């Protein structure tokens, strides 16, 4: 519960941060001196005083978006404003195109961490702290500890607590250090490359200093489960991988009890890619288990994978992929198969993109999406799924199906597309084909305003299309 609360808090911080700095042009009350931009607070603290002494023209942007010459007090044309480099209070470098233009991302630089080291007032040892900026929170919310190491990854300090004042002895003698970042169980997440040490000075650490994701190649179930974690790409050799064949001990993986065994649950993983060679299959045996559960995870990518329960006759009460309170999920060229109850179960999750993939032979329906937004399916196939529902979409926004095929699915007790609580036009189905599907109706009567249909084909279904609402053929 604490982890979920922390994840939600981080999301709120991200929203606040984006709302306060993510402008297309230069923010109001920015003072431009030469080709540099400053906030009024920065100028009050003496930052930029050297530029002021040069006697250059000084311009300030008003809340109405107008530029004022501070010497004359008169408005000037924005075309007089040059390309501006602005450093905010977190050290982020933002470069704006001339004439009060957009951010030039290629030369801008985000700062993720702030390191500060000073002498202990007693003269014995040093005081050290490492803090995350709001940009850092958006990328590394699961970091709790850090450790300074040398270029050979030998320890310079003990593992220290992030966001706290830490006292160390003896003094750090190295002029440059690397930094390992750890989660709450002190499992390493990622490293920061060489940082130059300067006492009594804030050292901002940019995204460019973060080590590239580790690439791990695996060929067995044990190697796969052991490799799971944040900021890494895991490449799977051809073969079948039993996700419950190896008990991983760590912060990001735990196991939940189900009626006939266990299910694997991934929590707080950030930036992980699972990419398979041709012929890679991930599976579990317990029929009551979801094959893979993700809780409070971000930037998870699946490529070239087949995922499901052990094949063969039988009946499942667990689904295939389940996402709770996640974001930025990509599923590409994958097959999600039954007897799992449904291919996708999505709750409180944003930004899912499914492309060139298949959901087939599930025993309850195709998918259920609750309280989520920005969910897209492109060039994907949904076939031979039975028997209670098709796609259930509740209280969602911006759900899109484009160039998808729905074939030979059965929803005996529900409409093919059903749900509640969505806004008008929240679901778009475009350029899709529906063939040999059987359901109570195509769209729930109370849901018709939520669904927009464009250029779709319907052939040999049990329902007829009457605008956006259909009824079963007699």
TrEMBL record:
InterPro entries in alphabetical order: Beta_helix (IPR039448), PbH1 (IPR006626), Pectin_lyas_fold (IPR012334), Pectin_lyase_fold/virulence (IPR011050)
Keyword Signal among UniProt keywords: yes
Organism of origin: Oceanirhabdus seepicola
Protein name per Swiss-Prot or TrEMBL: Right-handed parallel beta-helix repeat-containing protein
Signal sequence region: 1-24
Keywords, sorted A to Z: Signal
One Pfam family of this chain: Beta_helix
Domain Right handed beta helix per the UniProt entry, residue ranges: 294-457
């Amino acid at each position: 519960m604490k982890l979920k609360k922390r994840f939600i808090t981080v999301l709120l911080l991200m929203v606040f941060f984006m709302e306060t700095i993510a402008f297309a042009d230069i923010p109001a009350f920015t003072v431009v001196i030469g080709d540099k931009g400053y906030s009024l607070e920065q100028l009050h603290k003496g930052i930029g005083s050297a530029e002021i002494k040069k006697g250059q023209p000084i311009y300030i942007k008003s809340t109405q978006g107008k530029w004022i010459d501070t010497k004359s007090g008169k408005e000037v044309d924005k075309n007089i404003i040059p390309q501006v480099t602005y450093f905010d209070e977190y050290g982020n470098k933002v470069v704006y195109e001339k004439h009060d233009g957009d951010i030039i991302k290629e030369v801008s630089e985000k700062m993720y961490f702030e390191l500060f080291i000073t002498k202990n007032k007693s003269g014995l040892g040093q005081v050290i702290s490492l803090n995350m900026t709001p940009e850092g929170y958006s990328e590394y919310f699961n970091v709790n500890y850090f450790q300074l190491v040398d270029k050979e990854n030998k320890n310079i300090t003990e593992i220290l607590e992030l966001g706290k004042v830490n006292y160390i002895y003896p003094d750090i003698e190295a002029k440059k250090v690397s930094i390992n970042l750890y989660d709450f169980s002190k499992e390493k997440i990622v490293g920061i490359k060489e940082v130059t040490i300067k006492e009594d000075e804030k050292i901002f650490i940019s995204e460019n200093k973060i080590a590239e994701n580790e690439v791990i190649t695996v060929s067995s179930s044990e190697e796969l489960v052991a490799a799971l974690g944040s900021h890494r790409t895991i490449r799977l050799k051809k073969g079948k991988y039993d996700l419950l064949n190896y008990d991983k001990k760590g912060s990001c993986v735990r196991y939940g009890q189900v009626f006939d065994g266990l299910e694997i649950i991934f929590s707080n993983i950030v930036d992980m890619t699972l990419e398979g060679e041709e012929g890679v299959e991930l599976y579990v045996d317990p029929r009551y288990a979801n094959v893979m559960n993700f809780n409070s995870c971000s930037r998870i990518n699946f490529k070239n994978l087949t995922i499901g329960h052990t094949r063969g006759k039988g009946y499942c009460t667990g689904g295939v992929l389940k996402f709770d309170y996640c974001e930025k999920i990509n599923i590409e060229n994958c097959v999600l198969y039954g007897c799992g109850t449904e291919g996708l179960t999505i709750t409180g999750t944003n930004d899912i993109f499914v492309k060139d993939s298949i959901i087939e032979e599930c025993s309850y329906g195709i998918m259920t999406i609750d309280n989520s937004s920005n969910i897209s399916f492109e060039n994907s196939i949904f076939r031979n799924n039975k028997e209670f529902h098709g796609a259930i979409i509740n209280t969602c926004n911006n759900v899109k199906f484009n160039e998808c095929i729905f074939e030979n699915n059965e929803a005996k007790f529900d409409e093919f597309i059903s749900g509640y609580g969505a806004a008008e036009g929240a679901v778009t189905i475009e350029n899709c084909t529906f063939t040999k599907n059987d359901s109570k109706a195509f769209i729930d009567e109370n849901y018709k305003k939520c669904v927009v249909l464009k250029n779709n084909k319907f052939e040999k279904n049990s329902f007829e299309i009457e605008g956006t609402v259909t009824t079963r053929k007699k």
